[in-house]
Specification:
The chain is an alpha/beta fold. It is built from 19 helices and 14 strands. The chain has a 6-stranded parallel β-sheet with strand order 2-1-3-4-5-6, with helices on both faces. Strands 9-8-7-10-11-12 form a 6-stranded parallel β-sheet, with helices on both faces. A two-stranded antiparallel ribbon has the order 13-14.
Length: 500
């Protein structure tokens, strides 16, 4: 029979035994927990570094999982790149997006996916990349249609995103991802505080000119690389001339036979310097009655109408309105023609026919696609030697073009460029001299053989050094390098590192 003391000892022994059991149980649970952490951690690590798909550790919805599976089936081993740009067939930005989409798709390292359906002109109008664009677009059309639903964020895809940055970091463009590239053309000399804050949304900036890159770095944006734009060389072949270009060339040649044709292109605005062109051509035409001006000044941006009205006194830039405007400035009606929103082949045919092309631009954040196409056509080209234009001339200067070297200071209050500054100076911009423009026009008019030789050198330079193929190859290497340096999709990058 147990005494009280014995009972106490017995109960104590039982409690001790139970405590040892609990300790063993706790030890077992601890070991089990550690094992689970190791397993889950290993799985997490594999998911965050694996690039066989866009899978992330985020809890996904069924729609998101289905979308990721669709992307994997389409892209395979290629690096998925969400392309937040808008391909089009009749604008500089549209051509840029078109070439990035088509040529990255052709190269095979990246799998670009558009965030939306392009405008109807990409399907209906005539342009050089149309068949390639349609092939690649229809291959990923279902992905673009699905992508529209994720405008707020595509971080769940764990893939890089390439953005056409609106304005100078004016607003977030949507479709922000885990790693964001920004492509931006800067013309304003300084940024507002809110713009600098939004600039931090981008992990890496791609800049289309040396001057553009200088401005960005001046404002503390160091993760930036210069990738110059290109042109489509086969459009400018003359032996034989592409059939769609030849048919327009013959019409333009017949309509302008016997005239000394001066081409001026760029949407109508103060920055493009059309006021300088008008004054120089008036004086040139007063001496040479065979001179004729053909313009491509159509401005499709409705938000710029108030600025165009302030600068030029008109609100419409269709051909009829431009002709009426130029006649009102004192240019005879039989010495002026205007192009509107035309197909690419019409622009090329006009450049091939022109005796000289004139670009008195006060600032270009990029290298000016029309100026590059003018050089590629072999047309003697007069270029303002400032900002982005310098990338076309600094290396060869007068061997490839006729530079306007007298560049004065530009002072003008423009809200979108320097409205936030205390003064009205537009730092880095250049004001071309009307007298120097007239001097260059006179020289080309009277020294046509030499002018053609310079034009031929310009064509050789652009066609060999500034092609879209080379431009997008450089872009691909820049994107690849930036991703690898940031530790993004390492496995896939290593596997595809040999592609160039």
């Amino acid at each position: 029979m147990l005494t009280r003391k014995g009972l106490s000892r017995y109960v104590g022994e039982i409690m001790e035994v139970e405590q040892r059991k609990r300790q063993r149980k706790l030890s077992f649970m601890f070991i089990l927990t550690v094992l689970l952490i190791i397993v889950v951690g290993s799985r997490y690590s594999n998911e965050t570094t694996s690039t066989e798909s866009c899978v992330t550790t985020t809890i996904l919805t069924e729609d998101q999982e289905r979308f990721i599976e669709m992307i994997d089936r389409t892209c395979g081993d290629r690096i998925v790149l969400v392309l937040n740009m808008f391909p089009a067939a009749r604008s500089g930005w549209g051509f840029l997006a078109m070439n990035i989409f088509v040529r990255l798709s052709n190269e095979g390292r990246f799998c670009p996916i558009l965030t939306d359906k392009p405008e109807g002109e990409a399907f209906l109008t005539d342009y050089n990349l149309k068949s390639q664009f349609l092939k690649h677009y229809y291959n990923q059309e279902v992905l673009s249609n699905e992508m529209r639903h994720y405008h707020d964020s595509v971080e769940f895809l764990n893939c890089p995103v390439f953005h056409a940055v609106p304005g100078t970091f004016d607003a977030r463009p949507g479709f922000m991802g885990k790693f964001n590239f920004g492509y931006i053309t800067v013309e304003q000399p300084s940024f507002r505080d809110d713009e600098m804050l939004r600039a931090k949304d981008y992990d890496f900036i791609v800049s289309p000119s040396s001057w553009n890159t200088h401005l960005l770095r001046k404002h503390g944006i160091e993760s930036v690389a210069t990738v110059l734009q290109g042109i489509e060389t086969d459009l400018f072949e003359t032996n034989p001339m592409p059939s769609n270009v030849r048919s327009w060339y013959e019409k333009i040649e017949m309509a302008t036979r016997g005239k000394f044709l001066v081409f001026s292109g760029g949407k109508l605005e103060f920055r493009k310097g059309q006021d300088i062109v008008i004054e120089a051509f008036k004086r040139f035409r007063s001496k040479h009655k065979d001179a004729s001006l053909v313009t491509l000044w159509y401005n499709r941006h409705s938000n710029m109408i108030p600025v165009v009205k302030e600068d030029f006194g008109i609100t419409k830039t269709d051909p009829e309105s431009i002709v009426h405007f130029l006649v009102s400035k004192g240019i005879p009606r039989d010495s002026v023609d205007a192009l509107g929103y035309v197909d690419q082949c019409v622009i090329v045919a006009t450049l091939l026919r022109a005796d000289v092309a004139l670009f008195t631009n006060r600032a270009e954040g990029a290298t000016n696609l029309l100026a590059m196409e003018s050089l590629a056509s072999g047309t003697p080209t007069i270029l303002s030697n400032n900002t982005g234009h310098c990338d076309l001339m600094n290396e060869y200067n007068e061997d490839v073009a006729f530079p306007l070297t007298a560049q004065g200071e530009v002072r003008r209050r423009i809200d979108s460029y320097n409205g936030h500054q205390d003064d009205d100076i537009l730092e880095g911009w250049g004001e071309s001299s009307v007298d120097e423009v007239l001097e260059k026009l006179e020289y080309i008019y009277t020294h046509r053989d030499h002018a053609r030789r310079v034009g031929s050198s310009g064509a050789s330079f652009i066609r060999n050094r500034r092609t879209w193929e080379k431009s997008i190859r450089v872009l691909s290497d820049v994107l690849y390098g930036a991703l690898k340096n940031a530790g993004v999709v390492i496995e896939k990058l290593d596997r595809l590192g040999g592609i160039s």
